[in-house]
Design a protein that fits this description.
Elements: E1 11-17, H1 25-35, E2 40-46, H2 53-62, E3 67-70, E4 84-85, H3 87-92, E5 97-101, E6 104-108, H4 111-120, E7 129-133, H5 137-148, E8 153-158, H6 161-175, E9 178-183, E10 196-199, E11 224-227, H7 236-243, E12 248-249, H8 251-267, H9 273-283
Parallel strand pairs: 1-2, 1-3, 4-6, 7-8, 7-10, 8-9, 10-11, 11-12
Antiparallel strand pairs: 3-5, 5-6
Length: 286
C-alpha cells in the first residue's frame, strides 16, 4: 500500500475521570462521528487518582488528541495543567471539556448550559427556587448557570460544609442570586417552597443504583426533579419522583445537550439533535 492510499490518521478524543465505565459518552460520540463520516474516535480514560491528573493531561497533549472531556472528580483539579481557561471556567472554578488547537489546551465548562437546556424543555427556570443535592465540579457549574438562567434562589445541600459554603459564595458572586447552604445529615429534608430539586451526586449510578435519601414527604408533588446520572436513564431518584407525582428531567437529556455543543466546538459541524438522541439511546440499549 502506497503512502497516498493509507487511511487518514484518526483524530482521537477522550474523557478522563473516575469511574467512567458506565458512562455511554464514548458509544454516543463514536456513533455520531461515524454518521458524519469523520475519521474520529472517542476513548474513556479512567484516571485512578488526582495525583495522576497531571500525567494524564500531559499524555493528551503529547499524543495530539483533538479534544477531551473531564468528568468527576477532576473538573477542578485539572485546571492548573491547562494553558488557558475561558470566562465560564474563571467564574465557575471548574472545567468539563477542553479544546485543543495548535498544541494549546483551553478549558471550558458547559455542564450548566446542558442542564439548563434540558430543564427548559420541561419547565421555565425564571424566578424558580432551586435545591441542589451535592456541589462538586458539575454541581457548581450547574448552580451558577441556573442562577444566570433566572432562578431566584438556590439552596445547596452537601455533606461537606466547606464545599457547600464555598460554592454558594461562588454562585452569589458570579450571579448576584442568593445561594444558601444546608447540611446533609441523614434523610434529606427539602425546604418548603422548592420548585426544582436536583441530584448532582453520583448516587443512583449503575451498577450500584443507590437511592438518594430524600424525605419525599417534604417534596411538593409537581416539583420538577432533575438527575445528572446518565446510566441508568431512570434512576431510583427519578423513579421515586415519578411515583410522587413530579415531572422529571433525566441526565441523558443533559448529556445530549452539552455533547452537541462540544461536538460543534471540536469539529465545526452544526449538530443534529436527532442523531445524538438515537446514538445515546442505542448506547443504553433502549
Amino acid at each position: 500500500m502506497s503512502a497516498s492510499t493509507l487511511p487518514p490518521q484518526k483524530q482521537l478524543t477522550t474523557m478522563i475521570g473516575h469511574p467512567v465505565a458506565e458512562n455511554p459518552i464514548d458509544q454516543m460520540f463514536d456513533a455520531v462521528f461515524a454518521h458524519y463520516g469523520l475519521h474520529w474516535q472517542f476513548w474513556k480514560s479512567d484516571v485512578a487518582s488526582e495525583a495522576q491528573v497531571g500525567a494524564a493531561i500531559g499524555g493528551i497533549r503529547a499524543l495530539g488528541f483533538a479534544g477531551a472531556c473531564i468528568t468527576v472528580p477532576y473538573k477542578v483539579a485539572l485546571i492548573p495543567f491547562l494553558d488557558e481557561i475561558d470566562a465560564d471556567v474563571k467564574a465557575i472554578g471548574a472545567a468539563n471539556y477542553m479544546t485543543i488547537r495548535d498544541g494549546r489546551l483551553t478549558g471550558h465548562n458547559n455542564d450548566g448550559k446542558g442542564v439548563v437546556k434540558a430543564i427548559q424543555k420541561v419547565t421555565n427556570l425564571k424566578d424558580k427556587r432551586v435545591v441542589m443535592l451535592g456541589a462538586g465540579g458539575a454541581g457548581r457549574a450547574m448552580a451558577v448557570e441556573l442562577a444566570w438562567a433566572g432562578a431566584s434562589q438556590l439552596t445547596l445541600i452537601t455533606r461537606r460544609e466547606s464545599q457547600g459554603i464555598e460554592v454558594a459564595q461562588t454562585v452569589t458572586k458570579a450571579s448576584g442570586v442568593s445561594c444558601a447552604w444546608q447540611p446533609w445529615a441523614g434523610e434529606v429534608q427539602i425546604p418548603e417552597g422548592t420548585q426544582i430539586l436536583m441530584n448532582a451526586t453520583h448516587l443512583g449510578c449503575a451498577p450500584e443504583r443507590e437511592a438518594v435519601p430524600v424525605n419525599w414527604r417534604t417534596v411538593t408533588p409537581g416539583t420538577t426533579v432533575v438527575d445528572v446520572i446518565t446510566n441508568p436513564r431512570i434512576t431510583p431518584f427519578l423513579q421515586a419522583a415519578q411515583e410522587h407525582g413530579c415531572p422529571i428531567v433525566d441526565g441523558v437529556e443533559m448529556l445530549v445537550q452539552l455533547a452537541m455543543q462540544i461536538f460543534e466546538e471540536w469539529t465545526g459541524i452544526p449538530p443534529d439533535e436527532v442523531i445524538f438522541q438515537q446514538a445515546v439511546a442505542k448506547a443504553l440499549g433502549e
